[in-house]
Amino acid sequence: MNHRLFLLYPLAEIALFILVGRAIGVLPTLGLVVASSVIGMTMLREAGLATAIRLERARDAPARILAEGGTRMLAGLLLLIPGFLTDLVAAAILIPGVRRAVAARFVPGSAQGRTRQPVIEGEFRRLDE
Prior knowledge:
Layout: H1 2-24, H2 26-57, H3 62-80, H4 84-93, H5 96-106
Helix pairs in contact: 1-2, 2-3, 3-4, 3-5
């Protein structure tokens, strides 16, 4: 079944190119493809930098930060790939609820806001003194 989807995807993209091209013209269609690629490239760069900065400043929940940044980078990558289907999937990923669901699928606990770590209380003393 997966190999059929793999073969149907390019055909669906070509069909969408033809439909959009007929509806708005060839040059505006090419303009949309170029614009989405530029937006995707910008998003990919910004998401990577923002994730690195947030990881550097944060002291807790690195999994949540990485999941959030990773889903934004995924959306940017999908926008970078020419095609209207990938653009629709990228737009869906940018919706906060969908983004949290996608992140939760890959990183359990990332949708809850903070990952809960067990707290172990105790006392210590140095033995080398």
